[in-house]
Amino acid sequence: MPDFTSPQGRRIAYDLTPGEGPGVVFLGGFRSDKEGTKALHLEDWARREGRAFLRFDYSGHGTSGGSFEEGAIGDWAEDAMAALSLTQGPQILVGSSMGGWIALLLARAMPEKVAGLVTIAAAPDFTEDGFWAEMTGEMRDRFAAQGYLDYSSDYGEPLRITRRLIEEGRGQLVLRSPLRLPFPVRFLQGTADEDVSVATALRLLEHAEGDDMRLTLVDGADHRFSTPDALDLIARSVEEVTARS
């Protein structure tokens, strides 16, 4: 398994498929990894198309080094920026859930490396507008006292939300200041998503500024967005963004 050490000293595992550009970079979600259905489907598509493709694990995720509980949004954005150094020229970023937030941070920090953007159930600012906003007073008292809260999860072991994740995330928010996206953008969102609401997708569309942005709502699709039709829509969206970039 190839890996590299980021400028911050974190070991990042990746898979890079050679091919023509603009390449495609998959940015996974919170506590997910590069072996997920969407990442592998896009990799197969890229191979068939002769396109360069990169998937990787943030630190504390998958087979990369580090502890998930010690990480935060800024760390994972740094990991993604370091991973982009493996690619040549501007890339099409495909961000799933938290990966959508990471993709927006990359677009803001290094727009010269972004040829286009596709998000899947993008979850910008979820640490503040999700976990923090939804804590009751009693939960916030417990959070302050112990420095974390554990949540049950539909995706595996209980999820530990740390003080650092919330506080560091406040420096990474993208929906509180201008967000210019000067390249083709396609936002994809399922109407049956119980983790990211349609309201969040509409808020992102209304907040961002760009000349070529579209939001597609898929009736009945959930947060996984991994049915055959949903996977085909992701690939078609990458093709459309590429053609317009």
Give an account of the 3D structure.
This protein has 245 residues and is of the alpha/beta class. The protein is 36% helix and 23% strand. It has eight helices and ten strands. Strands 1-2-4-3-5-6-9-10 form an eight-stranded mixed beta sheet, sandwiched between helices. Strand 7 and strand 8 (159-162) form a beta hairpin. Helix 2 (73-84) crosses helix 3. It is globular, with a radius of gyration of 17 Å. The two termini are 32 Å apart. The mean pLDDT is 96.
In terms of structural class, how would the helical and strand content be classed? alpha/beta
Instruction: Give the overall form.
Output: globular
Strand order of the largest sheet: 1-2-4-3-5-6-9-10
- Extract low-pLDDT stretches: none
- Strand portion, in percent? 15-25%
Task: Provide a compact summary of the structure.
The chain contains eight helices and ten strands. With 245 residues, the chain is α/β, with parallel strands linked by helices.
